Amino acid sequence: MATVLRNCDNCGRLYEADTRNLARGWGKCCSKSCAATLREKSAGTKQGKPARRLTYDELVARANATEKKAKPRHIESHLQRNCFTWFRLQYPRLRLLLFAVPNGGFRNKKEAGIMKAEGVTAGVADVILLIPSGGFASLCVEFKTEDGRQRATQKEWQTAAEGAGNKYVIVRSFDEFKEQIETYLTPDKNNG
Question: How far is CA 138 from CA 50, 73, 174, in A?
Answer without folding.
Answer: 67, 29, 20
